Amino acid sequence: MKIPQLLLLAALAGCHAGSDPAARAEARLRHEVETADGFRQVRAAEALGPFAEFPADSESPQVRIGQYRVRIAAGRREYEEILRRRALDGSAPEQCHALESAAKLAIRFSPEERRQLWDIVNGPDSPAAGYALWLLAANGDAGAARRVTAGLENGGPPALTCAYASAFLPELPEARETALRRLLEREPADSQLAAFTLWALARHGKTGADVVRRRLRALPGGTAEKVLRFHLAALGEAGTAEDLAELAGYLDSPEPEIANAAAGAILRITGRAGR
Fold it and tell me: According to the lineage, what is the superkingdom (predicted)?
């Protein structure tokens, strides 16, 4: 999906600046949790959360993994075993989603299970390999953590997953931070890799709000939805109260995922400020 230039201008104008952005953001996300479905509903719940009784009955096995992730984040640890099984099952269509969700949640795997994860890393399925590497790093495997950094340094397709993983891994070693900064300098500003990289740096407090604002405002009118979403998320990590009016303008986006990303960013900022 493409984001029209008019939307960017409307956001800069700070639509509805006189209303409470946090209240609008929360109402927006609650409505999405009640009425949306699929990953859109999952992402809205994660931005608002926690939801111990979030639906877990999707017909899609991939979406169902996301639903389990929401429940686990709310303390429903009985669903962790489902993610472990699916993550190690190469025949499961939802394997990549299970690996990714387990990595996001830093679910612990046994030594034998970690050996199986290394088999996936060294196997032929590149997407699964990237998520398995991230999961191993999230389980404290130093070798996997070094390979995440190397994936950023070497570039190519693995860099995308490694940049995304860097946002979730609790530590940001100097070498990985340097690799992220180099990627941000050389990648096209409106690329998905640049968006993930900016977000990762912002999540770790390694880039300021001024940098994120400048890059967000410089995005061209044809910027892809996912790229804009992650720029908004980065502003949610690095931004301050002065960014609320600009973010509130995006709540009027005709693209639901953009409005939801802006809502999540607003709640991140107001949550830090204690409203």
Answer: Bacteria
